[in-house]
Amino acid sequence: MATPTPAEINTQIGNATRELAPGTTWKYNAPGDGYYCLEWMDDPALQPSEAATMAKATELAINPPPITG
User: Fold this and answer.
1) Distance of alpha carbon 59 from alpha carbon 31, whole angstroms
2) How many beta carbons lie within 10 A of that of residue 54, not counting itself?
3) pTM (2 decimals)?
4) 3-state secondary structure at position 39
5) Nearest residue to 40 via CA among 51, 27, 31, 30
6) What angle (nearest 5°) sits at the alpha carbon of residue 32, between those of residues 50 and 57?
7) Looking at beta carbons, which pairs linking 38-44 to residues 24 or more positions away fall under 8 Å?
8) Dihedral of alpha carbons 51, 52, 53, 54, sign
9) What confidence tens digit (pLDDT) does each residue in 34-67 have?
10) How far is residue 24's CA from residue 43's CA, in Å, rounded to a whole number?
11) With the C-alpha atoms ordered 4, 6, 7, 8, is the resulting torsion angle positive or negative?
12) By C-alpha distance, which of 48, 49, 52, 65 is closest to 12?
């Protein structure tokens, strides 16, 4: 299994945030640098940590979720 690139990981930031903090309000300001593109608009206590978000985004970059639409 190949190691995902930073770009592949960054493309999963939104999905990671949705999984870690379902039902919260935030906006992803692309293009940008991963976690720091998130504009959190909800209770700050609900925001996942950078480490947790990046770990989940890496996991999702290795095994992307199915495309729904």
Assistant:
1) 21
2) 18
3) 0.85
4) strand
5) 27
6) 40
7) 38/13
8) positive
9) 888 888 999 999 999 999 999 999 999 999 888 7
10) 8
11) positive
12) 65
